[in-house]
Amino acid sequence: MKRRSARQLVRLLSDIRHATHCSTLRAAATNRAIALASAESEAEAADGDDDTESTRDTQQHKPFRSES
Question: Region (Disordered): which ranges (predicted)?
Answer without folding.
Answer: 38-68
